[in-house]
Amino acid sequence: MKARWDIFCSVVDNYGDIGVTWRLARQLVAEHACDVRLWVDDLRAFERMCPEIDVQLSQQWQAGVDVRHWPAEWPATSAADVVIAAFACQLPPDYMEAMAACARTPLWMNLDYLSAEDWVVGCHRLPSVKFKGVQKYFFFPGFRPGTGGLLREAGLLDQRQAFQRDAVARETFLQDMGVFPAADAQLISLFAYENAGLAAWLDVLSTDGRATHLLVPEGRILGDVQRWLGVQGLAAGAVHQRGALTVQVLPFVPQAHYDRLLWCCDFNAVRGEDSFVRAQWAGRPLLWHIYRQDEDIHLDKLDAFLALYTAALSPAARTALIAMWQVWNAGGDMAQAWKKLLEHWPEVSRHAESWCLEQGLQADLATALVQFYESWI
């Protein structure tokens, strides 16, 4: 019999958490023949990522996944064989009682946040708390051997490389999205939280000798873009040009389209966790806007990733890339940081591809979860 999986997602971080769990649920069904229920407390947020979702339904099937609304009043529900609490969300008390009542105890895991910090390897797969004899385990995605790896569908990197080699496919995809960049323009995607450093970066791009087409999916950074342009009501479909810079606002798109958007671009500014990982699979230089946490503990995670990611770069390129990421995450003046990075562009570009291929040698997150369950039983 197929293993039954329950994945619980409480949407708190502007689509990052639902982005991760939706990818994971689909991959477990498609590649590992798992029977998956995905419990989501905010179907309207989910709808942005999966337009086929009917927000009025408490239960529906999408891409082979049994999608359930996680209601305030929990219905009587049997527990699954594998239970994943995504990003430390708290399971419904009645569901925890159902786990404890199972004849065979379920495997209960906390799928934690992605981090490159050294301690993650030591904590991965360790037991956590118990509830009436049901043991919970830590499960950490990560970049190093000894972690759970990253979400990566089978054949993803081959698909990406074939797409990037196919100029007609890229042009057709962009045209279908209403994007018609100048022939010599560099393409940059911008998906970020609010950032005071954006204006200085846009100033540089607008006065550059090379044309830039900036693609901005709808999101929290849009207010900063609007202020820089000096316009009102900036929304999907808008196109504005200032000097060498063309700014185009895109609608929120399904995940497969967003992947291809990243594959089309020369540089990708991303945020949170889901888009951060997908930008790495694009094999192109990137800029990460990490989610801010109390007491600036997010900066430890940022520094840990930078130390790992830049280890193979030359000292000058490493310094330039680290400086730009740190300035961006501090909301600082991006002008000089961007110019300095451009001095090392060929090396940084080669490194982005080699880093992608290196990470692709590790087991992907869905496979690692299945392997843990199989070893556990």
From TrEMBL:
<keyword id="KW-0808">Transferase</keyword>
<dbReference type="GO" id="GO:0106361">
    <property type="term" value="F:protein-arginine rhamnosyltransferase activity"/>
</dbReference>
<comment type="similarity">
    <text>Belongs to the glycosyltransferase 104 family.</text>
</comment>
<dbReference type="InterPro" id="IPR016633">
    <property type="entry name" value="EarP"/>
</dbReference>
<keyword id="KW-0328">Glycosyltransferase</keyword>
<comment type="function">
    <text>Protein-arginine rhamnosyltransferase that catalyzes the transfer of a single rhamnose to elongation factor P (EF-P) on 'Lys-32', a modification required for EF-P-dependent rescue of polyproline stalled ribosomes.</text>
</comment>
<dbReference type="Pfam" id="PF10093">
    <property type="entry name" value="EarP"/>
</dbReference>
<protein>
    <recommendedName>
        <fullName>Protein-arginine rhamnosyltransferase</fullName>
    </recommendedName>
</protein>
